[in-house]
Task: inverse folding
């Protein structure tokens, strides 16, 4: 690996850029722009300094915004009050301390692991709670995610044609194992993200956000370009990214949103919410082997079936070992994995849920699941079906669907994207708003008026 001079310049120079964005733009837009730009373009790099946690892409993305909050908006920070909805995130961030202590790994190990987990999960969630906890803030983020997908279109198309080279060309090295970029006789783009799977999921979720905002009339153009040009461009690029799982999730998301708009039923979103907990419960208790999934995968391709079989085998082994220490897991340092030195093999952790179970036990895994699904579940229940496709609520409903799908993606993959946590913080903040319940549809009201009127629906389920 031969990093170029741009790597330290960009990594250490990002915080001043965030400060500039916060000075030039309204606070919400600055937050969204900072996250989307950082996660889309910063290099996959890490600097290790003795005595402090690693300064990497995740830390730069989240820490820069927190620094800007302290310098420019300290009053908002001091006025923050935790809510019951924040409990799962607090438990998830602090659970590594209990895991380290219960495994005699020491307090320092637990605190450092908890801090890294807080940076990746707690920081973006907290920033979302501070800035995006209403309908206007969530709309800014939904539009920002779609805009991020639009900016990635030419970059993805270049790498689909020329192979993933942009990270190497700009920063001097490939972001991950180049051998994993081949897919289906072509190339799967990685651009400046960790893996092609993350790019595929990002483009599919940007496509879904754009399609839903366009379908509901909430966004008709972006940068003076009509949505009927931008949405197909992002969608086609997402398909060309060759991430089968992400494409399936995109279809599931649009079916869920479409069923609410056209049929007025929340059944499909509720089913999608239940899929991950039911799957995890069945796999932990070893009551389901996943043979039906293997059959479906074999219908797609032999490679897909072999890959899924390998994942399921690893899940069986890792779940069995995790349940030897059920409450707080095995802690770090590879203790949750299984090594066979005689046969020279070890288990591979693919899914985030099995990783959470092995490292932090049932306590961490349950809090992790609640982090991703509790706020979406409550919002699916509280927002009446006829409001999902209205201008004020369209963005919030797109984002809660994205987080449901992200939980499903975390079953086979372990790709932490802080922008989804940013959305989750905003959705959780929306649940804490205590206002009278009144819904009035006025097509020409301002965003502020829409928020003041439409957000009132969340006071209690079924109110009118």
Result:
């Amino acid at each position: 690996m031969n990093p170029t001079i741009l790597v330290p310049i960009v990594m250490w120079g990002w915080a001043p850029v965030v400060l500039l964005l916060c000075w030039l733009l309204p606070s919400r837009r600055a937050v969204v722009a900072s996250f989307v730009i950082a996660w889309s373009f910063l290099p996959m790099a890490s600097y290790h300094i003795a005595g402090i946690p690693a300064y990497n892409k995740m830390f730069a993305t989240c820490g820069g915004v927190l620094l800007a909050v302290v310098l420019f908006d300290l009053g908002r920070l001091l006025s923050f009050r935790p809510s019951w909805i924040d409990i799962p995130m607090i438990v998830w961030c602090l659970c590594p301390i209990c895991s380290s202590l219960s495994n005699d790994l020491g307090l320092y190990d637990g605190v450092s692991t908890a801090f890294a987990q807080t940076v990746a999960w707690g920081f973006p969630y907290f920033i979302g709670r501070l800035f995006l906890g209403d309908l206007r803030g969530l709309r800014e983020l939904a539009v920002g995610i779609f805009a991020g997908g639009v900016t990635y279109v030419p970059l993805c198309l270049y790498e689909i044609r020329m192979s993933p080279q942009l990270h190497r060309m700009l920063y001097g090295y490939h972001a991950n194992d180049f051998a994993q970029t081949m897919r289906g006789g072509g190339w799967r783009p990685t651009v400046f993200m960790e893996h092609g799977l993350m790019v595929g999921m990002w483009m599919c979720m940007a496509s879904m956000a754009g399609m839903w905002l366009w379908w509901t009339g909430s966004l008709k153009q972006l940068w003076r370009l009509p949505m009927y040009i931008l949405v197909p461009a992002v969608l086609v690029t997402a398909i060309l990214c060759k991430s089968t799982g992400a494409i399936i999730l995109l279809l599931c998301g649009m079916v869920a949103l479409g069923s609410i708009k056209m049929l007025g039923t929340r059944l499909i979103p509720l089913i999608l919410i239940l899929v991950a907990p039911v799957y995890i419960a069945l796999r932990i208790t070893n009551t389901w082997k996943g043979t039906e999934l293997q059959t479906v995968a074999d219908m797609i391709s032999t490679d897909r079936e072999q890959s899924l079989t390998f994942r399921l085998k690893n899940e069986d082994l890792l779940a069995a070992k995790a349940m030897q220490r059920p409450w707080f897991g095995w802690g770090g340092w590879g203790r949750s994995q299984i090594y066979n030195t005689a046969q020279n093999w070890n288990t591979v952790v693919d899914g985030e849920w099995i990783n959470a179970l092995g490292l932090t036990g049932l306590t961490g895994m349950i809090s992790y699941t609640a982090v991703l699904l509790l706020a979406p579940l409550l919002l699916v229940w509280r927002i009446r079906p006829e409001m999902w496709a209205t201008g004020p609520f369209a963005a919030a409903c797109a984002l809660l669907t994205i987080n449901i799908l992200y939980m499903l993606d975390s079953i086979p993959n372990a790709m932490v994207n802080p922008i989804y946590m940013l959305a989750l913080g905003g959705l959780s903040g929306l649940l804490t708003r205590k206002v009278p319940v009144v819904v009035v549809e006025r097509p020409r009201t301002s965003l502020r008026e829409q928020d003041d009127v439409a957000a009132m629906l969340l006071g209690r389920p079924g109110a009118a």
About this structure: The CA atoms of residues 291 and 309 lie 9 Å apart. The chain is about 65% helix and 5% strand. The longest strand covers residues 46-47. Strands lie at 46-47, 55-56, 182-183, 186-187, 221-222, 225-226, 339-340, 345-346.
